[in-house]
Design brief:
Helix content: 40-55%
Shape: globular
Radius of gyration: 20 Å
Number of strands: 10
Structural class: alpha/beta
Distance between the termini: 52 Å
Largest sheet: 6 strands, mixed
Strand order of the largest sheet: 6-7-8-3-9-10
């Protein structure tokens, strides 16, 4: 089986604090992997390591076959990344933003023209090419940001809470696009707090306090924890981990006494 991402015991420390603790995940090519966890759980740190923006403290991992420790530039060239916060230029039009990012990726000539046409159609932005990005609604902005992330035809797309604060209709349209991309063979790693979105992922991993608590398909996780839905899976895993850590602290206190 081919993996777009494969990590073994990937760890990141900041001084005495462990942000990500011995993370081991394998994400199949062409699949959608939902990476879930409360704020501050280690999701963004993990993503930064996988994007080649942060060097791991220890462990090993590959992204599209490239080593996260030594081949960060190769990784950056082959992935698309979209953050929760709108990061494009609001004083540029839709088309100007696409042109700007095409220039960054070195896309010009007929290829640039064709990619812009394809992505504007994919995002439903036809007729809005001359509209300022800053005047777009939240849902349209996210579709434009996704288009810019896809300009260079990446093999892996990393989305960090892409639909936070977006209305339900726009969220559904956005996810229809994501599923179409996966069917085309693009691997998607996405973080989300919306359990209805997580339910449609092929595979899910739950992280909390830097520890990967469980992973599997949505149906497997619900059955394994004997709960009714993914929200209950999320709450149950967090409660168990909090209880485990509280018990560990109590043992350490008793040992010092």
């Amino acid at each position: 089986m081919e993996y777009a991402i494969h990590c073994e015991n990937l760890t990141k420390r900041f001084g005495d604090r462990i942000a990500v603790n011995s993370l081991s995940i394998s994400i199949r090519k062409g699949s959608i992997y939902g990476f879930l966890g409360p704020n501050g759980s280690g999701k963004s740190t993990t993503i930064r390591m996988l994007c080649g923006l942060l060097v791991p403290t220890s462990g090993k991992g590959t992204v599209l076959g490239y080593d996260v420790m030594t081949q960060s530039e190769e990784i950056k060239q082959r992935i698309g990344y979209m953050s929760q916060k709108f990061s494009l230029y609001e004083d540029l039009t839709v088309e100007e933003n696409l042109d700007f990012y095409a220039g960054i990726y070195g896309i010009d000539g007929e290829r640039r023209k064709q990619r812009k046409k394809e992505l504007i159609a994919m995002a439903g932005l036809t007729g809005r090419e001359k509209q300022l990005a800053g005047s777009l609604s939240g849902g349209w902005k996210q579709r434009l940001a996704l288009s810019c992330a896809l300009l260079h035809q990446p093999e892996l797309l990393i989305l960090d809470e892409p639909t936070a604060g977006v209305d339900p209709v726009s969220r559904r349209i956005f996810w229809n696009v994501i599923r179409d991309l996966a069917r085309q063979g693009i691997t998607v790693l996405v973080t989300t707090h919306y359990m209805d979105e997580a339910q449609t992922c092929d595979w899910i991993g739950f992280i909390f306090f830097g520890n990967l608590l469980a992973q599997g398909t949505p149906a497997e996780l619900i059955a394994r924890l004997q709960v009714d839905n993914l929200e209950d899976v999320f709450v149950t895993l967090v409660q168990r981990e909090e209880e485990r850590q509280a018990a560990a602290r109590n043992r350490r206190t008793e040992e010092r006494a």
